[in-house]
Each structure stands twice: as structure tokens, then as C-alpha cells.
Design brief:
Layout lengths: L9 E5 L4 H12 L3 E6 L13 E4 L5 H14 L5 E4 L15 H29 L2 E6 L3 H4 L5 H20 L5 E8 L12 H9 L9 H11 L10 E5 L7
Parallel strand pairs: 1-2, 1-4, 2-3, 4-5, 5-6, 6-7
Helix pairs in contact: 1-7, 2-3, 3-5
Amino acid sequence: MNKLDLSGRTAIITGGASGIGEATAHRMINSGARVIIWDMQTEKFDKFGEETQCIKVDVSNEQDVSQALENSLKEHSKIDILVNSAGINGVNAPLKDYPTEIWKQVIDVNLIGVFLTCRAIVPHLLEHGYGRIVNISSVAGKEGNPSASAYSASKAGVIALTRSLGKELATSGVLVNAVTPTTVDTPILEQVSQAHIEYMKSKIPMDRLGNADELASLITWLCTEDCSFSTAAVFDASGGRTTY
């Protein structure tokens, strides 16, 4: 494992209690960062040490996000990094059969949640003239997966939001990038049918699923000072599935 330097930095990771978010939290802690977990899965908070602040947050709820940031800043005087990893899959169904409420819920968590957290934290980052934001999208946001219209649409929105915000903040010292994983072996796959998993695996030239630690390495590097000339960019981690 290459050594990455986040000494003296403080990071908020949404969805940090499991999956890619959890792997990123551990990689950042090992890189010297102080980490704050924002997640709904409070039963998983015990796996983190006492130095890691864990807050129950529904990222789709504006009041929750505002209160969580206030609580984070009570314990940490400055936030440097935001990783938006919170997300849900919804259901696998043709669009004609897709339940409206679940479609809206996926958009609320996966896209509006990213908007709300970025909107809350960007003013703080601008005040200090430095920041790194990494939004976790998906190859589904580039290609669209069949029977996953809500998830695909939400992740496409995350890519567009990242490009827009990155350009807005390009001269501010706050860099905003997105990562587009292919299917990664994490607990979110419990929400997906085995047939859909096999379909997505068949699209990967490396012929395997990704693992969370591989994503954590890329995400953590994007949050270091070494990442200094990339913003509004989309970084693939797809085993060769997407090449654009």
C-alpha cells in the first residue's frame, strides 16, 4: 500500500459506515486524517475508534445535514474534505413497472443528498481557501443500466453536478471530482438481484468485481494536496468497462 499524506486534515464521509465509504474512512485514518462519519447505520458505528466522530444523518434531509455540520464543527474547528459515498440502489425493474416512490427516494438520497451536503460545506471550505470534494457516482451514470433507471439517472446527475461545481470553484482552492466505479463487492449488492450482478460483471473486461479498498485508494489520493490540477473531472474505476 502506497503512503498517502492527509496529516492535519479533517474529512467528512457520508455513507462511511459500510462499503466504499468505510474502506475510505480507514484508508484516510491510516493516512493521518481525522474522520467524521455521516450515516444512517448507527449500529455500525462501534467498529470505529473513539477518535472518529460518528453522526446519524439522513443526507436527503436538509435539516439533518445542517445539524450534522454544526455538530461536526463543534468537535473539529475546520473541515477540509467531503466524500459523498452515501447511496441506495432502489429496485431492479423495468421503467414501466418502477414504483414512483422508490424512484424518488433513490434520487433524494443519491443526487439531492450530494447537492445538500455540498451546499452546506462549500461556504466553509471557501472561507479557508482549501478543500477537496469527491462524489461517488457510477458507470451506470455514464452508460445506464437496464432495469436500474433511478440509480442510473441519479448517478448521471452526480457527474453533472460535479462538473458544474468543479468549474464554479476552479480558482478557489476547492477541487471537486467524481469517481465512477463499476460493480464493487459491497453490502449494497444485497439490494440487487443476482441476475443483475452477473449482467454487470459480464461487462467488465477484467472479469471480476472491484473491491472497496481499490476505490478507497483512488478516493483518498483525490483528497490529498498531490491532486492539484484536476477538478470537475471524472475518474473511472471500472476494470476497463468504460474508457471515456
